Amino acid sequence: MSKIITIAREYGSGGRLIAQKVAEKLGLVYYDNQIIDLAAKELGFDIDTIRKASEERSSGFLYSMAGGSFQMPLNDQVFATQSKVIRHIANQESCIIVNGCADYILEDYDQVLKVFIHAPFDSRCKRVEEMYKEDEGDVRKKVKTMDKKRANYYNYYTTNKWGNLKNFDLTINSDFGLDETADIIVEMYNRL
């Protein structure tokens, strides 16, 4: 049976880098944007359109009429397709999935370690500033905006609340160090 790690994270916490380190240490396949790419392929849309839709919750309009039939908004189609892709991957192989809603999508799976990575706001801003070479004022705004987008998306598509500790098996402050955080996740995974 597959053993899965899902990683949700605050923007700038280093969650993606930590996930890559964990994948390398455990020899697991790492999925992040590949899930969006697979959803785009299945829906028949270009990747940029699907990536944008995958970051935003649906508009207030539930369904639209297209060609005489009801059609879900693109954002909802993307979420449904990503959910299908994530479940398919989880049934096929042990892996790491970096996706804000993967913990919810796989909540009925037994062998899943659900991780939430966070860090103090100033640490996250510093990491984003160093990685993307942006102005400090812009960075602070971007970190707040991205966290808000992630929370809105998660809260809209799940019955859980984004960042709630009870949704996860492990929540960890990445200020302990990226390698150290990865080591803790590896140890927890080995106990599944």
Could you give a quick summary of the protein structure above?
With 192 residues, the protein is α/β, with parallel strands linked by helices. It has helices spanning 15-26, 33-43, 47-53, 74-92, 102-105, 121-132, 136-157, 178-190; strands spanning 4-9, 29-31, 64-66, 69-71, 95-98, 112-118, 170-173.
Mind explaining what this structure looks like?
InterPro entries: P-loop_NTPase. Keywords: Kinase, Transferase. Pfam families: Cytidylate_kin2. This is Cytidylate kinase. One of its GO terms (molecular function) is kinase activity. By secondary structure, this protein is an alpha/beta fold. It has a single domain, classed as 3-Layer(aba) Sandwich (Rossmann fold). Helices cover 52% and strands 16% of the residues. The protein contains eight helices and seven strands; from the N terminus they run E-H-E-H-H-E-E-H-E-H-E-H-H-E-H. It has helices at residues 15-26, 33-43, 47-53, 74-92, 102-105, 121-132, 136-157, 178-190, and strands at 4-9, 29-31, 64-66, 69-71, 95-98, 112-118, 170-173. The strands form two sheets. A five-stranded parallel β-sheet has the order 2-5-1-6-7, with helices on both faces. It has a two-stranded antiparallel ribbon with strand order 3-4. Strand 3 (64-66) and strand 4 form a beta hairpin. Helix 6 (121-132) packs across helix 7. The longest helix has 22 residues, at 136-157. The radius of gyration is 17 Å and the shape is globular. The N and C termini lie close together (11 Å). Residues 60-66 have low confidence and may be disordered.
